[in-house]
Give the backbone structure.
Amino acid sequence: MSGYTPVFDSVFKGSLYGKWPDTAAWVCMLALADHRGHIDVMPEAISGMTGMPLADLLACIKRFCAPDPRSRSQAEEGRKLVPIDPARDWGWRVVNIQLYRDRASGRDQIKDGRNAEKVRRYKERHRTPADTGGHRATPSDTADTYSDSDSDSDSDSDKSKREREPRAKRSATATRLPEDWSLTPERRAIAEAEKADPEREFQNFTDYWLSASGAKARKHDWDRTWRMWCRRAPDFRPRSQHEEPQLTWRPPAEDPEYC
């Protein structure tokens, strides 16, 4: 990562506010930091690369290495730089560089859980064939994923419909369909809203998922999977008395994953 460091506008709003040439020297030195935050470059070389007079640069570095009681972070007493090797008069480590790199990449949100749900949804939407056991992901495999992304891609009518539906609490771990999973009034209403036969779809749903095996037979939210199932039910009805059903998708019976 040598040669790259994110620069936030807070650089110009903190204890360096209004201090020139300190702000210019600081931004230039950040760009020279490697993946460890080390600037292992002689000041003469920095001066030559940036065009800043050596005397001005050395004065800036001296201030960066001094305690700063007004700094936002009091790590190393607010110093911006500390020597890599006290035995030589050049080479420094940027004290808080990893903090700002984490903020720029979003890793700080991942660490404290703020971004965990976004990361989970991103991984689900970008699963590769290797992640699905060599089989292309089907709608049944990714029912949770599709319903997660619905909020971004569905029409306004679909959004309002989901807002009216009861939203079940997502379980911490994926589970198989419980043996006592029943056709409650709420689940019946979901099927009826999709113009589906509640009893028939419920029997198909439970027979299929109770007989399924493997990781794909485990879901985090079975009520959400039920909604997806009912939403696709109209695809399997004849369009008229003289027209054959136009099947768009069902879990392939010949696929060993569903046997």
